Amino acid sequence: MTKINIIGAGLAGSECAWQLAKRGFDVEIFEMRNENRKTFAHRTQDFAELVCSNSLRSDEITTAIGLLHQEMRQLDSLIMRSAEINKVPAGSALAVDRDGFSKFIENELLNTKKVKISRQEIQELPIDSNEIWVVATGPLTSDALSSSILKHTDEKHLAFFDAIAPIIFKDSINFSKAWFQSRYDKGSGFDYINCPLDQDQYLEFVDDLLKSEKTEFKDWEKNTPYFSGCLPIEEMASRGVDTLRYGPMKPIGLTNPHFEKSPAGTPLRQRKEKAYAVVQLRQDNKQATLYNIVGFQTKMKYSEQQRVFRKIRGLENAEFARFGGIHRNTFINSPQLLDEFGRFKKFPNIYFAGQITGVEGYVESASMGLITGIFIANQLNNSAKNLLRPSNKTAFGSLLNHIAPDLEQMKVTNENSFQPMNINFGLFAPFENNIAKDARKEAYSTRALEQLEIWKNQFC
């Protein structure tokens, strides 16, 4: 039987290994992290470590990401199973205890007896191998392997920055000023910690962000752009004084119980119970001892983070379990380099999966690992000749079409415009008939789940 090798034990690599192992294939995962070696973003050697946030975003079926959650559940996703077992309160979002999430995935994979882990770095793209390889190294591909990929792709290697939000110890938060509440009371209604700012405090906070000392970039990083879905908070602040109030610090749907109710007739802008802006913190572990500041990815120096964030009402004595940070993300020009099943066109024994292909986000990366595992299993079972990928009416198919467009779309694709993308309904095949706007999201989801079930019954 052909040996299957996966480079990277992250979300995509772990999900790919699971899909293959459960179908009876032996898999070897090569992971460069070990007891003595981490990356500048990872803190453990665990499988599927969540580096930035602990949230897998909305779990509502009428959102594109929530739909992708459900499609992955339909295909027996290990990532989604671990998320359910290790979830923590987060309103309508699906957030997890980081350590429990990773440990469950690692244990499940090793318990199959079909998955072997080798703690070593693969430095060269295995173009001469007779075995199947999956490159699932994600945004932190090693310099050596990155150079090898660049050499064999004849492409300019694209890159952007991802930023990490800080984490705070719950017992250092001042609850005489902060309070528990979910926006619009979704979920349990008490899934987030909220810290209010009045207008003067907010304007001072924005000013502090803009004037703070930032991490200096190396020469090779200076022309690297940010991914729009993960902008540092100070970068958002630079785009307009009210940008944060309409983004991660929006006060709508929240009422401060510490403020007295304003007299009748008080203008909305002046009502005391309505904060001018609100900082939210989301539970980060099962024990509810750690909370991350939602949307506060940052490139500020550690001392500046402590100084500026402690000015937020309720966080005056905040103790940080982890400061925010920033790392460089890399991805290949997938529309030019990969076929419709994620194989390297020049060397079809090599698949690429996950974030390195140009999908953005934990769930999107894991989903591409999942579908790659299914594609490989079908290839090895000699059924690849008749294999079709999921329809563009599904979330899976839409993401695949983003990184490897069909021939008609390729004719209009600008090879220089390819950028990482989160799942969104704009990627889905449009409806043939007009559907009312307020019914469209539900219609997308209903159609997608029906289409994926048909594909699953035929190819899984």
Structure characterization notes:
It is a single chain. This protein is of the alpha/beta class and 460 residues long. The chain contains 13 helices and 16 strands. The strands form four sheets. Strands 10-11-12-13-9-14 form a six-stranded antiparallel sheet. It has a five-stranded parallel sheet with strand order 6-2-1-7-16. The protein has a three-stranded antiparallel sheet with strand order 3-5-4. Helix 1 (11-21) packs parallel to helix 4.
The class by helix and strand makeup works out as alpha/beta
- Order of secondary-structure elements: EHEEHHEEHEEHEEEEHHEEHEEHEHHHH
CATH topology of the largest domain: FAD/NAD(P)-binding domain
Principal-axis shape equals globular
Radius of gyration: 23 Å
Mean of all residue-level pLDDT scores: 88
CATH superfamily of the largest domain: FAD/NAD(P)-binding domain
Q: Could you describe the largest sheet, including whether it forms a barrel?
A: 6 strands, antiparallel
Number of discrete helical segments: 13
Low-confidence stretches are 408-414
Helical residues, percent: 25-40%
Strand order of the largest sheet: 10-11-12-13-9-14
CATH architecture descriptor of the largest domain: 3-Layer(bba) Sandwich
- How many beta-strand runs? 16
CATH class of the largest domain: Alpha Beta
Number of domains: 2
How far is the N terminus from the C terminus? 20 Å
